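[recover] target loaded
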């Protein structure tokens, strides 16, 4: 492309590269997408979608096993065409929504609470793993329809203080990830991906099921519910 990267910003779960010549590159990695630094001579993995040759001699590669991610190359005035970017709610690291704002924000939604959290329109930046952690913390069944959540459950989801924990985790992750930016370190989580391990709250086994093309981990004892009669 012959472009210079002027800045990189995060918008919810999207990365936005400002490039010279009034262009932008927007990366929406979805579940399995990641950027990776590699020397040109290193083997190109089958999941590699894009390779950018950088002036430093290194390559920035975009890998995506499930190929669900999206990449946009556009000028800033075309941003409005990216629905995923335009519909983002306030970022999860911004000042937390008040409970009233949260209730108001929930109103238009009818779907399952996990789907609503990860979609980004209510709060932007909550991924699959993060949503599992919040719902475990709030003791809410991930597949419950938001319209059927009790006031108490809504208050517990809104009040989950996990977001603060994630903020402090960023520092630790930055250190541990180093230049291996594609690495997903998940061992500090309580439930996500912990199939058959013990729930840290009650000691029951964690259940992991695949629904809507993604894994959901939860504790059947702490987060009771059934796929029928949600
Ligand atoms: Zn439990």
């Amino acid at each position: 492309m012959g472009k210079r990267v002027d800045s990189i910003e995060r918008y919810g779960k999207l990365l936005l590269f400002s490039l010279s010549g009034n262009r932008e590159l927007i990366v929406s990695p979805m579940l399995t997408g990641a950027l990776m630094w590699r020397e040109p001579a290193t083997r190109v993995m089958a999941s590699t979608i894009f390779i950018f040759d950088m002036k430093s001699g290194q390559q920035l590669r975009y890998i995506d096993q499930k190929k669900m991610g999206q990449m946009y190359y556009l000028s800033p005035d075309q941003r409005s065409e990216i629905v995923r970017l335009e519909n983002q709610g306030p970022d999860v690291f911004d000042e937390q929504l008040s409970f009233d704002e949260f209730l108001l924000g929930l109103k238009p939604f009818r779907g399952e609470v996990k789907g609503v959290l990860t979609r980004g329109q209510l709060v932007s930046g909550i991924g699959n793993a993060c949503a599992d952690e919040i719902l475990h913390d709030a003791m809410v069944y991930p597949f419950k329809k938001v319209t059927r959540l009790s006031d108490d459950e809504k208050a517990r989801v809104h009040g989950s203080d996990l977001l603060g924990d994630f903020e402090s985790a960023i520092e630790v992750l930055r250190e541990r990830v180093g230049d291996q930016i594609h690495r997903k370190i998940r061992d500090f989580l309580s439930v996500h991906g912990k199939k058959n391990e013990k729930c840290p709250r009650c000691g029951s086994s964690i259940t992991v099921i695949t629904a809507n093309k993604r894994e959901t981990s939860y504790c059947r004892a702490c987060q009771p519910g059934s796929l029928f009669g949600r």
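[recover] notes: The chain has two domains: 5-86, 99-219.
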